[in-house]
Specification:
The chain is of the alpha/beta class. The chain has a domain of about 300 residues. It is about 60% helix and about 10% strand. It has 14 helices and eight strands. It has an eight-stranded mixed beta sheet, with helices on both faces. Strand 2, helix 4 and strand 3 form a beta-alpha-beta unit. Helix 2 packs parallel to helix 13. The radius of gyration is 25 Å and the shape is globular. InterPro entries: Nucleotide-diphossugar_trans.
Amino acid sequence: MGLRQIYRYLMAAASIAGVVYLFVISFGGIRQFDLGKFSILFENLFLSVVSAYLLFFLALLVLRYAMLILYSFMEHLEYMMKRRQEPENNFHDEASLPMITLVVPAYNEGPVIQPALRSLLLLDYPNYEILVIDDGSSDDTYEKALAVAREDHQVTIRVITKKNGGKADALNTGMSAARGEFILNMDGDTKLSRNTLRVCIRHFDDPRVGAVAGNVKVLNRENLLTRVQALEYVEGLAMARKAQSFMRAVNIIPGPLGMFRKSVLQQAGGYDHDTFAEDCDLTLKLLMRGWHIAYEPTAVAWVETPSRLLDLLKQRYRWTRGILQATRKHSSALWNPRRAGINFFILWYMLFEGIMWPFSTVLGNLFFVYVGLQYGVVIFLFYWWLQLTILDIVAATYCVIVEEEDPSLIFYAVVFRLFYITIIDISKVFATIEEWRGTAMTWGKLQREGKL
């Protein structure tokens, strides 16, 4: 069932309600039926329905937070126990470590490509190469990458330039040209923690693991907007991936850091070009094929996030539409739980976060503003905000402790709920509506400021 079908059902329900209303007016008699009382009755009914829905949504939200904290904590305990029981390196010696190819797709990454590449030369791993795919950049990305490649390094750096075809095409080019049996895909603006390759490769001792997702964190914590995003990445992304990893079913391998078996990538056909969230689409393709996807919290990708509101909204708009596109591609799993297995729950969870959550928070804000102005009970709006803020503070406190993050991030939970998430949710609502309408869109690349 697509969004258009849901829309038709809603329109059908509205039509039935209209017929019932006309029936009451026509056959009940205007004299015997007080339209004023009916409008009051209708308004009360509407307010009751919305109130009941918001209570239902709040219950789901509390359940969501509780489950994520529970499963992420269980994953954390399991992870710590495994690391205590096994040696630092699962392989017997350095010579047996498999080769890894780091694929760096780059399009107009001139301000950041050189520091990003030089940081990759410092990784603690004896057997890897760096493969830069210049996707037809119009700036000096290719020349700057080539200059680093020509320097004297122990690590091989190869630079391939091609006609612009999009990130998915660049990653597929890297997959074809990679010499390693494992591939780490990343972004051109990403800085990896030194231990990334060693800690990720250990997960592939399990033959069922097809890919490993890394931990993405914000590097440029320079203003209020980027600091709130730093909290969002820790609370909204890391906690969710850690909980999903307990079931080996991470639903999105992040673009800045994802390691794959090359054979698995090839079997899946690489990245597709028909969504604006190629990383989410590929992850779902792997899950649908039965592969496990793990999460490695100590493999950190430091990224530059938008420092201006307009850039942030463009990014989240694209993310939302891309995730909806990827979900629609695999929507058959939504209606076949027996065959889809855990993928059934993954897709419904994605729809909850992508559609129901933003629509419900926007609806809740509008509802309580209306009730406050109409009935003089503005305190309800404060209670609504307070309940959501308490959830954010609890989750933020837990995540900061587990991630050993900056404790000051906890205080940004208030700012996060006060204005940040409302603006983001409005952007998501518009993105959902325009995706349903089929409105054309472009990639909307973030302009890097070179802060790596």
